[in-house]
Amino acid sequence: MDVLCLGESMIVLAPAAAGPLRSAVDLHAGVAGAESNVAVALARLGARAAWYGKVGDDPLGRRILDVLDEAGVDRTGARTDPDRPTGVYFKDPGPEGTRVHYYRRGSAASTMAPGHLAGIRPPRILHLSGITPALSADCAALVEELLLERALDPALVSFDVNYRPALWPVSEAGPVLARLADAADIAFVGLDEAQTLWGATTADDVRDLLPGAGVLVVKDGGNGVTAFEGGKRSYTPAEPVAVVEPVGAGDAFAAGFLYGRLRDAPLEACMRLGHRLAAGALQTVGDLAPPPPPETVRAILEDQ
User: For the chain, which terminus, N or C, has the lower number of CB atoms within 10 Å?
Assistant: First the structure.
């Protein structure tokens, strides 16, 4: 396969009409998960993408697997747990932004442990995120097995920092996420995350903190993205868009960037395709957006 994604996917519930969660009568249910978002976006672009996470043997878990099937994601290595539930979270819109309430403690995904991918044929790229090691000690050990010990060598390992304050404090997350990102072949981090976790204020500060990452991609919201590879430093501005909802934009960017790497596109072209997918996600309610037309993707990747 081209890209294998591993992490927790959940059901997300949000008010169907504008207003706070506490007064909502009807809720809209969707599927969310950073790693499965990347797998879906890659599959829609035409890559051979897989998601091998774990869900409960319940209607919510089956809905997640149905969505992956519909998108063309290989989930033959995904597992179901008859004794643990599928994780759920709620969005609570408010005047100062949307708050998130997780109900994932003890979920099926939190029981993933070293050996979860034993016997799997290595993909070209393995994609992980910093959410997974926050779920449990076993999940943290699994990520270390895959990223630090390279259990699926020779797969390239992609790691998105994806810091979630609701899951663990900066004092605990900062050192762990720095060690994992620095060991990745491709590392994605938001500049705002880097400021929170490590006190970095510029993309170059982040590079100084993570010199070991083969390719380091530092995202600065609506401003642009700076990428470092070897001694090369590249910057591409973000596409101006009217933001409907920011959720999922980072995952879309990662999918676009990784698709470009699969096609051996130049670093700048990978960033441009990432921006294009992120722009689509920013203009969509929910985590997933339709991909650009194939001719647009080709034009972006072939434009030198």
Answer: C
In this predicted structure, what is the pLDDT of residue 285?
A: 57
Lookup: tokens for 2 = 């081209």
- Domains of the chain, residue spans: 2-33+50-111
Distance CA 55, CA 83 (A): 10
Taking the CA atoms of 207, 51, 70 and 1 in sequence, report the sign of the dihedral they define: positive
Residue 296 has pLDDT above 90, yes or no: no
Query: What architecture (CATH level 2) is domain 2-33+50-111?
Result: 3-Layer(aba) Sandwich (3.40)
Q: Is the pLDDT of residue 294 over 60?
A: yes
pLDDT for 284: 62
Sheet holding 97-103, edge to edge: 27-32, 10-15, 88-94, 97-103
Residue 274 CA to residue 238 CA, distance in Å, equals: 9
- Which of the residues 251, 264, 287, 303 is marked catalytic? 251
Using the predicted structure, report yes or no on whether residue 288 has a pLDDT greater than 80.
no
Compute CA distances 169 → 42, 166, 174, 201, 283, whole Å. 31, 8, 8, 20, 31
Cβ(280)–Cβ(297) below 8 Å: no
pLDDT tops 90 at residue 242? no
Instruction: Give pLDDT tens digits for 3-22.
Output: 999 999 999 998 988 889 99
Active site residue 192: no
Q: 54, 80 in Cβ contact below 8 A?
A: yes
CA atoms within 13 A on the CB side of 301: 20
Integer angstrom CA distances of residue 149 from 62, 110, 129, 175, 184: 32, 20, 16, 18, 11
Range 52-67 average pLDDT? 97
Q: How far apart are CA 126 and CA 247, in angstroms?
A: 22
